[in-house]
Specification:
about 55% helix; globular
Length: about 140
């Protein structure tokens, strides 16, 4: 059974946020998660509290926090095979809201879910077995 689109979106945001942090190195990864936990935001809550995550990171790390949020949103766009049609200067929280609205409205499934959901996997070619006695004829 497939997860509802909104639930899958939240799982994907958490996955992509983690991927963005991993790209910054182990130390940054651990420091950010530890800091968010101290502020009452668990790893599982990052997607549901994305605005709070952005605010907490900005209050703590200043403009550097924008890099983390930007990288996470770019990762989400990649995961949904959507064009990254925004700039670093755009409102990232507005971009996140628009992204969620589009994913839910258009029922877009992320790549990682497509790889694991047998319903969404590409059908395999089924070879046709021809009887050894059958011949191709031009008419009836």
């Amino acid at each position: 059974m497939r997860a509802p689109i909104a639930t899958l979106f939240h799982e994907t945001v958490n996955f992509c946020f983690n991927a963005a942090l991993e790209g910054m190195g182990t130390t940054v990864h651990h420091v950010i998660y530890d800091f968010l936990e101290k502020k009452g935001i668990s790893r599982a809550d990052i997607s549901m509290r994305f605005d709070d995550v952005g605010q907490v990171l900005t209050e703590t790390f200043g403009a550097s926090a924008r890099i983390i949020i930007y990288k996470a949103i770019v990762e989400i766009h990649r995961e949904y095979s959507l064009r990254t049609d925004f700039t670093y200067e755009d409102s990232l929280l507005d971009r996140m809201t628009m992204l969620k609205d589009r994913v839910v409205a258009d029922h877009i499934i992320p790549k990682r879910a497509q790889r694991t959901d047998p319903f969404l996997q590409a059908p395999r070619a089924i070879p046709l077995i021809q009887s050894p006695n059958a011949t191709a004829k031009g008419g009836h």
